[in-house]
Amino acid sequence: MTKETKPLRESSALRETARALSRRELCCGTAVLLCCLPGLRAQAEALRDQPLALTEIAPGVHVSHGVHAEVARDNQGAIANVGFIVGTERVAVIDSGGCLLWGQRLREAVRRITPLPISHLVQTHMHPDHVFGAAAFLVDRPTILGHRRLPAALASRQAYYTRRLNEILGDVAAGSIIVPPNQIVDSETEIDLGGRVLRVTAHPTAHTDNDLSLRDLATGTLWAGDLLFMERVPALDGSVVGWLTVLDQLCAMSAARVVPGHGPVAAAWPAAADAQRRYLTGLRDGIRAMIRRGGTMEQAIATVGQGERPRWRLFDDYHARNVTAAFHELEWE
Ligand SMILES: [Zn+2]
User: Fold this and answer.
1) Angle, nearest 10°, between helix axes 41-48 and 100-113?
2) Distances in Å between the alpha carbon of 233 and those of 94, 100, 192, 212?
3) How remote is the CA of residue 144 from the centroid of ligand 1, in Å?
4) pTM attached to this predicted model
5) Tens digits of per-residue pLDDT, 238-249?
6) 8 C-alpha to ligand 1 centroid (Å)
7) Ligand 1 centroid from CA 271, angstroms
8) Could you give the CA distance from residue 262 to residue 70 in angstroms, rounded to a whole number?
9) In angstroms, what is the C-alpha Rg of the chain?
10) How many A from CA of 5 to the centre of ligand 1?
11) What is the pLDDT of residues 124-135, one digit of tens each?
12) Over the stretch 99-123, which tens digit does the pLDDT of each residue have?
């Protein structure tokens, strides 16, 4: 069977499934948007006054834990791990959370720890739970770092992300805007915070086409963003083949611990990558085998990777979409 005929095998039911999946927000979006349903503003404002819980996973490295939730009335969209690193002269914030409210709480948390200026905001990638709090830091006039492909990615999804945010959050969404980077990372750059250097790396397409990772050389901490999911099933919005390649490259880097985009606030590196590598490898190999024997995407969705279900939170929310995305990628190999 030629590759050209493969799309014809898709049934109308499958296309509808794909359309339904495509209407869903990506890994971060759904929970971020639903976290602040209309009518919850008072609850959100009450939460705003509560101190943000932080864990200092290494000296000067503070992480706010994101919960594993799709729809959470009380989490304010805090489903991704975000945080900051404190030097002797400056502070770098890594991701800003899913709405302005969360960004403001993160900024207040920085202020509780240190009076040093917030000089840098690193946007690890385009997804809403990582970027919609950025406006909280504009008062600090930080250098905002992003992958060279981040501006285009944000521009292409800005209208959708912003519309959905306002539809679901209502006036709680006020001020939650997309803030593009003002320093592009082409391949690698360093941030000197005084007494410690952060090395920021731009990766080829993996989780998305605009992923950055960051290493704190002083403590041997790798901040992986959504290049690493733990406990919660990975969400594929880039390339399954590329993601496995980047994962191997990250694992070759020396680090004592990793901060995943979703999962515990810290874990031992590189062992922390084992489960995600197993999941993505199974996805890639299972779909390739399905394509080789002329199977359909529907069959792939029904069978590939099903053994992973008990091992991941939110499996049924994202796995079918991952298979769909990976099938589209691999059928043209
Ligand atoms: Zn993401």
Assistant:
1) 10
2) 22, 26, 34, 20
3) 18
4) 0.86
5) 999 999 999 999
6) 31
7) 21
8) 12
9) 20
10) 32
11) 999 999 999 999
12) 898 899 999 999 999 999 999 999 9
